Amino acid sequence: MTREQKALFQQLQLTGLGLVIGLAGFFLNHDEMVWIGLAVLAYGLVRTWFIAKIIQKAKDE
């Protein structure tokens, strides 16, 4: 696996963690966990998108 793939995979793991936290909070009826999970999910998605853009820009140059 290349460094770029590892970086993207780590960010997708963070996104998946946010999804797991959010779902656990939903099923356990803990509103705080749902919001924390959604925040981690959004943070992971944004970081994944930014890193993918940086990698693409580096490859284009």
What can you see in these coordinates?
- With 61 residues, the protein is mainly α.
- Helix content is 90%, strand content 0%.
- The protein has two helices and no strands.
- The chain has helices spanning 3-27, 31-60.
- It is elongated.
- The relative contact order is 0.17.
- Keywords: Membrane, Transmembrane, Transmembrane helix.
Q: Regions with pLDDT < 50 over 5+ consecutive residues? A: none
Order of helices and strands: HH
> Pairing-aware structural class of the strands and helices?
mainly alpha
Number of helices: 2
Structural shape: elongated
Mean pLDDT, all residues: 94
Helix content: over 70%
**End-to-end CA span:** 22 Å
Main sheet: strands, sense, barrel: none
Write down how many β-strands occur, each being a DSSP E stretch of 2 or more residues. Answer: 0
Q: Provide the number of structural domains.
A: 1
Which structural traits does this protein have?
elongated, transmembrane helix, about 60 residues, transmembrane, single chain, mainly alpha, membrane
SSE blueprint:
Blueprint: H1 3-27, H2 31-60
Task: Describe the structure concisely.
The protein is an all-alpha fold and 61 residues long. It has helices at 3-27, 31-60. The longest helix is centred in the last third of the chain and has 30 residues, at 31-60.
